[in-house]
Backbone:
């Protein structure tokens, strides 16, 4: 009887989770399916998940050859890596100070960081744009990277994580002759590895997929990041080839999906250790 | 030669007065235990000596030099933390090497791979490895050098922490309850090892503990701290036999000393409502309390000192000896006595007992709870 009830409960949570997964995955599945279809199949009267005949060859070769998708992806890598490195380099020392050094006004500073979490970057877009434009920096990597050089979220996440590192470890390092900088790089950084991994995924996903900011500061295909590049592609074809467009999006989302599958365990460990997971 | 001097150090956290003016003088190669119940400010004092915390008033001198404005690294001290505080991402060898690497190599020379390019960095690295191996050998952890702290037992971590502290030959070694995380058996063993290590290396040692057995067995001198005040500093025997106050007498010694209110003046001794005649040896003294340790409450018929009749409340058999709790008359005062097994066997047969407080070992305390040195007074009387 009890076993029966347990099975039923299992079935219920399994159903709910499956439903959630289907809803989340549906757009991706449609994207994949579309990338395999010709224009006629796309507008056929009945929806086919796996079309026949398959048209993936045409779509993917067009996506790869007609627009410089490789260039977009390379830009994406440079921008994401640049942003991530700078964010980690700025957020780790800030978080260390907020977590491990006692001084007057620390709580206020932390409250300001929390407040910054609430401000979407669209709000500051215009002032930042004006500054970049007046410095003649539009259409450069700097314009794509610099506005994201600090992250309130990273500071918050790392601070929570660092609070879990024993104070005595930091004190031992001080007695052993390390300066605060040395402590940050030689003791805190190696221990923060799980938190940095978790944050990396957030940061990379956000900036790889970001369409808003590249649209604001980039005007040429040479500087385009993948999502913006795909839009150039659509413009060229005046919306006439969804199959190839979706093939393009399949290609640009693939690295993220692969990376997540690869780092999934680390990612979840990192979240668990920062106490963010429920 | 004086090695560490703490002069009237005070520290408040908000409105709580944690240290209320502590002064200590510790000479070179001495092993001093700071003994006190938890929360009395021992760790705070140690952190102030180490430079991890700033005192509100007073000063700290190390080797004759005022160190108030120096950071922990410049004070030539080493600290063994209660939690060991080993770097989890470094191997045992790297952990022990950190204090040397930080002092002997510059930031540039510390860059990985540089020792391949610079001859100086290479020799330094080689010397460091030699020193690490040497101290590891003397702490008997030579075979653990490639392990990470996560793979060590509590006792091994303890040794690594001590090795890391000693490798640099600091002029003062500070230890904060280093044995409190070990099991009872290992604690006894490490106690002896730390004493042996102190004898070999001779570093001036300040050892914080709340465990009186540790303090008694290890230290040259014990500093008893209660409520943020230094109550007494002296050899273990002095602390035990001549405690400065009732508080020290009660804190040191287990089971606790018996403290009984009394009236002692030129008219004689009145204890628990009974006047005692013939209390020879107490003549000329006056006191408000007497203190008598459980082993000095005897059932001897002969001897000097007041006797009282009491009711046995409980008996504890400890193997080589026994403890008897007894209630005196109808005053409700409880006394504890430590006896041999014969007495214990006899006591089991009856429910009352006549005990004698050995006059020679009786401690006298005044109304202010401070001890009265009556044997000295008696000598002159
Ligand atoms: N950073 C701090 N802020 C506020 N109170 C503290 C701080 N450090 C210690 N205390 C308080 O000071 C008292 C003494 O602490 P501590 O020196 O750690 O005692 P001990 O080591 O003797 O157990 C305790 O009551 C503790 O709560
Ligand atoms: Mg303590």
Residues:
């Amino acid at each position: 009887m009890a076993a029966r009830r347990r099975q039923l409960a299992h079935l219920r949570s399994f159903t709910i989770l499956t439903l959630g997964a289907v809803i989340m995955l549906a757009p991706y599945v449609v994207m994949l399916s579309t990338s395999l279809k010709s224009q006629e199949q796309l507008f056929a009267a009945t929806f086919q998940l796996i079309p026949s005949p398959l048209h993936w060859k045409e779509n993917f070769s067009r996506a790869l050859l007609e627009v410089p998708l490789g260039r977009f992806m390379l830009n994406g890598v440079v921008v994401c890596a640049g942003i991530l490195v700078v964010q980690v380099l700025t957020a780790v020392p800030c978080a260390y100070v907020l977590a491990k050094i006692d001084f007057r006004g620390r709580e206020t500073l932390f409250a300001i960081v929390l407040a910054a979490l609430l401000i979407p970057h669209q709000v500051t877009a215009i002032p930042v744009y004006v500054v970049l434009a007046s410095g003649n920096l539009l259409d450069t990597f700097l314009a794509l990277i610099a506005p994201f050089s600090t992250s309130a979220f990273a500071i918050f996440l790392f601070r929570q994580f660092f609070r879990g590192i024993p104070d005595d470890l930091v004190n031992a390092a001080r007695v052993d002759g390390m300066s605060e900088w040395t402590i940050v790089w030689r003791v805190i950084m190696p221990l923060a590895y799980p938190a940095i991994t978790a944050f990396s995924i957030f940061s990379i996903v956000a900036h790889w997929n970001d369409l808003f900011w590249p649209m604001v500061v980039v005007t040429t295909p040479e500087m385009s990041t993948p999502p913006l590049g795909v839009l150039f592609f659509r413009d060229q074809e005046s919306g006439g080839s969804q199959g190839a467009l979706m093939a393009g999006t399949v290609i640009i989302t693939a690295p993220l999906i692969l990376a997540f599958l690869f780092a999934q365990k680390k990612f979840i460990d990192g979240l668990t250790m920062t106490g963010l997971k429920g | 030669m004086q090695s560490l001097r703490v002069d009237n150090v005070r520290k408040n956290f908000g409105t709580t007065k944690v240290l209320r003016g502590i002064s200590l003088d510790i000479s070179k190669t001495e092993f001093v235990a700071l003994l006190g119940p938890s929360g009395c400010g021992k760790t705070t004092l140690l952190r102030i000596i180490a430079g991890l915390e700033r005192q509100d008033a007073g000063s700290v001198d190390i080797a004759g030099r005022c160190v108030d404005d120096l950071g922990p690294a410049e004070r030539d001290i080493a600290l063994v933390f209660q939690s060991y505080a080993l770097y989890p991402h470094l191997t045992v060898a790297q952990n022990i090497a950190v204090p040397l690497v930080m002092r002997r190599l510059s930031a540039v020379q510390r860059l990985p791979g540089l020792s391949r390019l610079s001859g100086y960095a290479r020799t330094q690295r080689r010397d460091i490895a030699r020193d690490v191996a040497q101290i590891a050998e003397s702490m008997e952890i030579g075979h653990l050098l490639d392990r990470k702290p996560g793979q060590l037992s509590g006792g091994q971590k303890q040794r690594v922490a001590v090795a890391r502290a000693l490798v640099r030959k600091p002029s003062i070694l500070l230890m904060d309850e280093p044995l409190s995380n070990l099991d009872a058996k290992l604690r006894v063993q490490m106690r002896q090892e730390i004493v042996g290590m102190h004898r070999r290396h001779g570093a001036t040692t300040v050892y914080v503990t709340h465990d009186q057995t540790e303090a008694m067995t290890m230290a040259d001198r014990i500093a008893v701290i209660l409520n943020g005040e230094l109550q007494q500093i002296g050899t273990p025997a002095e602390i035990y036999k001549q405690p400065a106050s009732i508080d020290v007498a009660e804190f040191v010694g287990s089971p606790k000393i018996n403290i009984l209110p009394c009236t002692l003046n030129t008219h004689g001794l009145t204890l628990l409502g009974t006047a005692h005649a013939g209390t020879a040896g107490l003549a000329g003294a006056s006191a408000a309390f007497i203190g008598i340790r459980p082993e000095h409450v005897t059932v001897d018929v002969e001897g000097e000192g007041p006797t009282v009749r009491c009711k046995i409340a409980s008996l504890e058999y400890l193997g080589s000896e026994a403890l008897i709790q007894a209630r005196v008359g109808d005053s409700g005062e409880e006394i504890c006595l430590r006896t041999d097994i014969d007495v214990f066997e006899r006591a089991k047969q009856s429910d009352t007992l006549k005990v004698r407080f050995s006059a020679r070992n009786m401690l006298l305390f005044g109304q202010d709870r401070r001890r009265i040195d009556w044997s000295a007074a008696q000598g002159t009387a």
Summary: The mean pLDDT of chain B is 88. The interface with chain A takes residues 47, 50, 52, 71-73, 77-79, 81-83, 85-89, 98-99, 102-103, 107, 164 of chain B (CB under 8 Å).
